[in-house]
Amino acid sequence: MPRAAGGWRSSCPPWGFKVHEYSLAQSLLEGLLEHLSAHPVEGRIVKVHVRQGELLILSEEALREAWRILSEGTPLAGSELAIEKVPVMVRCRACGYEGDARYLVEEGWHQAIPILSCPKCGAQVEILEGRDLAIVALTVEERPSPTLPAG
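The structure corresponding to this sequence follows.
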């Protein structure tokens, strides 16, 4: 590993073990910056609205912290991530059921785990929704219009 002035340099996230959230935040940020370079907005982006499928297990706190760190020095600095959870939706190949997945909940677990079999007949299902992480909207604070002197 290369040695930098004052110590060793690393490309690891500053908090160490939340690499998954760090790489997801980096992908979101890079994709949004690329989009904004082709389609600029007027004003300051104050909130980035994200949809997170329930199959994508991550720490919202770590994702927000990664976003805060990675967005520093970019047009997105200071923006907030608003995360909306998307439930798992499935389709059964055997009986045609289409809807919510069943969830397994055990005492002491921090979250419910979706069961990926048909709630009606128990057959294998196709996942329709609930495994993506995507930016769906931006909240932009408009710049104040310059006031013209009264004439």
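The radius of gyration is 21 Å.
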